[in-house]
Amino acid sequence: MSHEHADAGHTSGTEAAHHGHGHDHIHPRPWNPLFRYVFSTDHKIIAIQFLFSGLIFFVVGGLMAMAIRWQLAWPWSPMPVLSKALWSSQGYRMPPEFYNKLFTMHGSVMIFLVVIPILAGAFGNFTIPLMIGARDMAFPRLNMISYWCMPFAFVAMLNSFIVEGGTAEAGWTSYPTLANSPWSTPGSFNGQTWWLIGVLFAGVSSLLGSINYLTTILMLRAPGMKMFRLPMTVWGMFITSILQAFALPVLTSALVMQLLDRTAGTNFFTPAGLSVANGPAAIGGGQPLLWQHLFWFYSHPAVYIMILPAMGMMSDIISTFSRKPLFGYKPMVIAIGAIAGLGFIVWGHHMFQSGMNPALGATFMLSTMLIALPSAIKVFNWLGTMWGGRIQFTSAMLNAMGFVSMFIIGGLSGIFLAATPVDMHVHDTYFIVAHIHYVLFGGSTFAIFAAIYYWFPKMFGRMMDERLGKVHFALTFLTFNGTFFLMHIVGLHGMLRRTADPTIYPLLNGPGVVGMNQFMTLSAFGLGLTQILFAANFLYSLVLGPKAADNPWKANTLEWGTTSPPPYYNFQTIPTVYHPAYEFSVPGVVGDFLPQTEPRPPIAGPMDPIMA
Amino acid sequence: MWDLPFPLFPERASTLAGRVDSVFFVLLAITVFFTTLIGFLVIFFAIRYRKGSQADRSNAFSSNLKLELAWIGIPLVIVLGIFAIGTQVFFEMFNPPKDVTPIYVIGKQWMWKVQHPQGRSEINEIHLPTGRPVQLIMTSQDVIHSFYIPAFRMKQDVLPGRLTSEWFEPSKPGRYHLFCAEYCGTEHSKMGGWAVVMEPADYEQWLKGGPVGSGGGSSDAVPTMASTGARLFEKYHCTGCHGANSEFRAPKLDGVYGNQVPVMAANGKDIEFVTANDTYIRDSILLPKSKVVAGFDPVMPPYKDVLKEEELLQIMEYIKSIGRKEGVR
Fold first, then answer.
1. Average of per-residue pLDDT across A371-386
2. How is domain B7-42+66-221 classified at the architecture level of CATH?
3. Of chain A residues 377-406, which have a CB less than 8 A from chain B?
4. Nearest chain B Cα to A176, which residue?
5. Per-residue pLDDT tens over the stretch B280-323
6. CA torsion angle for B212, B214, B217, B222 (degrees, to 10)?
7. What global pTM score does this model have?
8. A547-570, pLDDT tens digit by residue?
9. Where in chain B do CATH 1.10.760.10 domains reside?
10. Pick from B63, B74, B182: which is nearest to A428 by CB?
């Protein structure tokens, strides 16, 4: 495929015509189904692989969440299905370490196998070449390898359940010395090793993907696609890739160090003379805090890896369905960049009570609070986009609006956690559990739903059912808030995260807290059941949905200029781009949109410098 | 006020709790305002500018530099304001007053061991007097824990191989929950107990080992931590070198605590000064070669596998007790 890219690669920012774009030599797609559908180098197939495996693990992680909620509402009472299958010899009672395994793996699966692979892996892969007008990624084989790292992660994570001691139970943050002393807790006996291997592979997958995305966006843009004509989706993916490329090596080395501590007898994270559970004293000489620094140096940017692509995609969806240009395009790009830049200097806000010097804590507080500024730009510009638009309430738009309003709650509750004195109180309580779910479910997951509703026609050539989609949105929105909002309140009263049974403390055993916990659990079950609607809609539409037109949403970006689904080579001829993606309701244009491939009419006047 | 199944806001029982809550309420006001504003605008625009509505759209521009600057500028002012008030309280939470009383805490899977310098020790309970600032000096025996009393609004991680501290001044007698906030393994949720805050007189009584309010202490007083430490100081043969009458050349420990100590710099030639604080004393016992007092040979063996955490804290308290004497040097 290499010389195909040599052809498609003439993408200097100028609009000077490159002769011969219409006569590209296009390789046929592989005949062998093994290479066509399984070990495919086609970015669209790889995107669908990421999407499907991500959604399957979304079910796995979601079921774990249901089990967690069951325990919190009715502690130690027999759990449907699981009790009979696993604990019939122990009076159908879940052992406490199993609860610890549940929340550890719920977090790990959702973050490393669902949200990051779907947002960056699936939608990054699908949108980037189509939206910049390229035939494929810059390195198609690397792209294939990046996906095929994931099954190793899946196998390692699943295998951890069946090793002696069971799967990891040190939390998704895996703090030593709990995580690296084999005797500290059953899951640290073997399961933790498999957890480390699983996350390592997921990390390598993301790293390979991010290198590919960066190269593709920089080198393979269609003629006329200047950087400041890229749709926000691509900008989101571009900046996410920079984050991944610079932060992931730190996580990878930390994972390897913990792996060596566990298997090769090193002592990176073990202090001198440490003895856990009356085991033999370690030689030691390491620092448990070192892990926290290395881990959060990646994992704080990881939070932005899970929100920046979503912000990019939501910008495109909100603009398209408001039939109005995105408000303040360049400030939006700068804001994403600023969030990413600040994201590298805020990791210490996870460690205010670790024993950190308060002067350093105050510094991290300031850098963290400053993230409110670019976030404010994003939110007010989304509102500005809706202002004066002609808003179409499609399922994608509803989910995008849900994203904006829930992201606000998650973002603002973050200020409580950034403010050091308040964080002293609410750190490690359910307040933080509420915060992370408002960002990662209210934010990222609503964005995933919106993106699936929006790009489904382009991915599979069929439309999803809009009516079911709207019901799914309404029920998800209600049950989501029912599940997570009250967590702020119980957290404020001191209910701690990762606690298997709050009712052993009189304060948390009153009818108020117990009632709230039961209400949250019932809402969570509702939230889980609602997703059956989504699954049904997705699977039914995949096979029997009405055929999609090329541009069902009347959007401007390049992917809607090719067929649905796009051919193997994406574009018959590489398109030429004349303006940014947000030319909706342009004066002098018939219809209310102007694809990027069509020049602006002279009557529309020159572009605003903030927009292009 | 109507009857609620639980208090609307968590109880406050330390002098700083109110200060923390005031920051909380400032933040609450700001966030409720913006959440409502944005939530309202999303719904308002969605209805007003729905497809097919007759709303006036003639002025709806799609970029404006002044607006962008406004919604950077206003949050910036708010953020700096929060930073100013927040940091002030934060520093107070970390700077104990001069006359603070130490209490030692050891975390282990899954219990809290508390030792008062006056001698009494307890498990999963901590007795505290009102009106007197207390500093907890904490370490862990195995994994990371976190000492958290919600009514005091204070939380501090407790790490193995390291000393951390937190201080507070209880203000209201009562029994308050004590939790381990950092996830620490199988029975993490059971690692907790009570902080019992008493009137100072009752506390003194309790320290002597007598039942509270009975008026008289029990006859056999509990030995203080420092005197236990002094016994251990002999038991582990520390006196052989560090004792007052020792022939052997080792640094004397009287009057060391809290003062500047000259030690050899890492290059082995220069001399630098360090403050003999808790961490210095601890490190010098466990790993004596890490900081060698200038003019002495590094001959002391490391005690890192010899002493239990409790014994270490008792010896430290002894060294601190002989360090506080004024004018020894």
1. 94
2. Sandwich (2.60)
3. 377, 379-381, 383-393, 401, 404-405
4. B143
5. 888 888 888 888 888 888 888 888 778 888 888 999 889 888 87
6. -20
7. 0.91
8. 999 999 999 999 999 999 999 999
9. 225-321
10. B182
Contact across the interface for A379 and B38, Cβ inside 8 Å: yes
- Measured between beta carbons, the chain A residues lying within 8 angstroms of B287 are 272
The string of pLDDT tens digits covering residues B188-203 is 999 999 999 999 999 9
- Rounded CA gap, A189 and A167, in Å? 9
Q: Given an 8 Å threshold on Cβ–Cβ distance, is B183 in contact with A386? A: no
ipTM of this predicted complex? Answer: 0.88
Minimal Cα–Cα distance from B304 to chain A, Å? 6
Contact A419 B20 (CB under 8 A): no
Q: Are B90 and A384 a contacting pair at CB < 8 A?
A: no
Residue B275, classified by CB atoms within 10 Å of its CB into exposed (0-12), middle (13-18) or buried (19+), is exposed
Q: How far does the CA of residue A524 sit from the closest CA of chain B (Å)?
A: 22
Tokens found for residue B203: 């506390």
CATH code at B225-321: 1.10.760.10
Interface of A with B in 50-69 (CB under 8 A): none
Contact A395, A464 (CB under 8 A): yes
Categorise residue A490: left if φ over 0, alpha if ψ from -120 to 50, beta otherwise.
alpha
Label residue B267 by pLDDT band (50, 70, 90): confident
Delimit the CATH 2.60.40.420 region(s) of chain B.
7-42+66-221
Cross-chain Cβ contact A372/B75 below 8 Å: yes
CA dihedral A188, A190, A194, A196 (to 10 degrees): 40
Are A281 and B305 in contact (CB < 8 Å)? yes
Q: What is the pLDDT of residue A4?
A: 41
In this structure, how many other beta carbons lie within 10 angstroms of the beta carbon of residue A256? 13
Asked if A203 reaches chain B (Cβ–Cβ under 8 Å), the answer is no
